[in-house]
Amino acid sequence: MLPTSLPPLSKGGHATHCKRCLSGLPSSQVDIDPAKLALSFYCLGSLDVSGELEKRTRDWEREQWKEWIWSQQTSGHYGTGFRASSYMTAKHSEHSVHDSPQIIMTYTALLSLAILRDNFSRLDRKGLLKFLRSCQNTDGSFSSEPLGGDSDLRTTFSAFAISTMLDDWSGMDVTSALQFICSCRTYEGGYGQSPFGEALGGTTYCALAALRLATKQLDPLDRQKTIRWLVQNQASNGGFRGRTNKDADACYCFWCGASLHVLDAGDLVDKAEMASFVAFCQFKFGGIAKIPGEHPDPYHTYLSLAAVALLPPDSSEGTPWALCPLDPLLNATYQTSSWARAHIPAPKVDDDDALGDAGI
């Protein structure tokens, strides 16, 4: 049974918060305006995982969001992807040298369109593969943008996720990318953002999910060490900390919890205590904050809901804590990840059609 002291999960309030942020940001969050595409994913993802998308939105709104996301698809010398926002240009239709695609935004754009059940007929798949090749560095990592930008496990995971959704790995050198991931492993058992960096919960998830997407597994001793580090990061208040000896933060309930799930060790999470921490991070007017008492934002709202969806408290079925099942590797509901895997790959060419195109 659910703990009697566990407050209800305010699905409706969180859905209202996220829908409001799709229209405009409160003053406390205007600094993330340049990354609107990621923000859209967190908002849409929250509506999706809570099962509130169709209840809280109308057909014309979902179509409008689709069109806005597609207006961020941009092509150039280094291929095709999605830019972070239209804030650099006067009109959506105008693209400049400042609007080069960004790899994390491309990952979130594809998932957002899958949440909205787009058919991906406008996706430039060949250009997207060219973009991935342009972002890979000599050490196997991926830059956020062609020939520059951040280069770490976050961007590298995004490349693995995009390749998985395309069902086409020709856009990367998989062997060198895997070597880069291994080079980011630390003595604690977690993974740093880059080689020799401190182990972080978020980049540990990125490493483990990317390895699993490439059908790779940790050896037993490494797996045991990683599990130990992750379990030790669950704090006494039920939340997870992202680094050793730091305070718990709601987003790490997903990053660390999902990492344990990927390692088939999700049963080691104290799910009731984690849910209790998330419950007390809820804002009374909707949304979830990083810690109790702070202002909420779509990032922490989505990741908190995703954590609970993946690792629900016992006997949550039929209660407000029941959420849609989550695919831990792509970080989306299974319905959305299935849609992405079915509609993003290039359509299969029938043999008769191919012969006809060849004039035979």
Automatic annotation (TrEMBL):
List, for all copies, the residue spans of the domain called Prenyltransferase alpha-alpha toroid.
10-331
Name of the protein in its database record: Terpenoid cyclases/protein prenyltransferase alpha-alpha toroid
Q: What is a GO molecular function of this protein?
A: CAAX-protein geranylgeranyltransferase activity
Q: Which UniProt keywords apply?
A: Metal-binding, Prenyltransferase, Repeat, Transferase, Zinc
Keyword Aminoacyl-tRNA synthetase (UniProt): no
UniProt xrefs under InterPro entries: PGGT1B-like, Prenyltrans, Terpenoid_cyclase/PrenylTrfase
Q: Which organism is it from?
A: Suillus discolor
Q: Which family does it belong to?
A: Belongs to the protein prenyltransferase subunit beta family.
Matching SUPFAM superfamilies = Terpenoid cyclases/Protein prenyltransferases
Q: Which taxonomic lineage does the organism of this UniProt entry have?
A: Eukaryota, Fungi, Dikarya, Basidiomycota, Agaricomycotina
- Required co-factors: Zn(2+)
Q: Name one GO cellular component term.
A: CAAX-protein geranylgeranyltransferase complex
Pfam families in alphabetical order = Prenyltrans
